[in-house]
């Protein structure tokens, strides 16, 4: 057993399970030095992976770029969820980008609201 192996998990993180619309939902929130990683699954796998960041610009109002790295590209609700979270991160004073994995059984507004509020409640930013 390598005695250094425990160090890999020195990243601040939270892991929890909750019920969203009657479905068991697992959440993992990690704060790395240069980004936040958030994984949400109801299906036991990664699902769609999105990247969201605050754009550095001259505008007074911040703009945010949200893109799909992997998975469903035509899901506006997933994009909206990522945008809500990156805005929240930015408003909390962090400029770190977000990598968000959403493996959800449905992409309804109700489900995504539940996911977003659970993440904000348990945030590490």
TrEMBL record:
GO terms classed as biological process: proteasome assembly
Keyword Phosphoprotein: no
Pfam family of the protein (one): PAC3
UniProt xrefs under Gene3D superfamilies: 3.30.230.90
Domain of life: Eukaryota
A GO cellular-component term linked to this record: proteasome complex
Record key words, sorted: Proteasome
Alphabetized InterPro entries for the sequence: Proteasome_assmbl_chp_3, Psm_Assembly_Chaperone
Name the record gives this protein: Proteasome assembly chaperone 3 isoform X1
Naturally occurring in which organism (per UniProt): Nelumbo nucifera (Sacred lotus)
Gene designation: LOC104593191
């Amino acid at each position: 057993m390598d005695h250094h192996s425990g160090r890999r998990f020195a990243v601040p993180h939270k892991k929890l399970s909750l019920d969203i619309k009657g479905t068991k939902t697992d959440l993992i929130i990690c704060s790395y030095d240069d980004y936040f990683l958030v994984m949400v699954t109801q299906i036991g796998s990664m699902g769609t992976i999105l990247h969201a960041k605050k754009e550095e610009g001259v505008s007074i109002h911040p703009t945010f770029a949200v893109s799909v790295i992997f998975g469903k590209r035509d899901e506006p609700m997933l994009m909206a969820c990522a945008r809500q979270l990156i805005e929240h991160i930015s408003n909390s004073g962090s400029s770190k980008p977000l990598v968000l994995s959403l493996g959800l059984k449905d992409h309804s507004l109700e489900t995504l609201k539940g996911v977003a509020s659970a993440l904000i409640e348990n945030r590490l930013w």
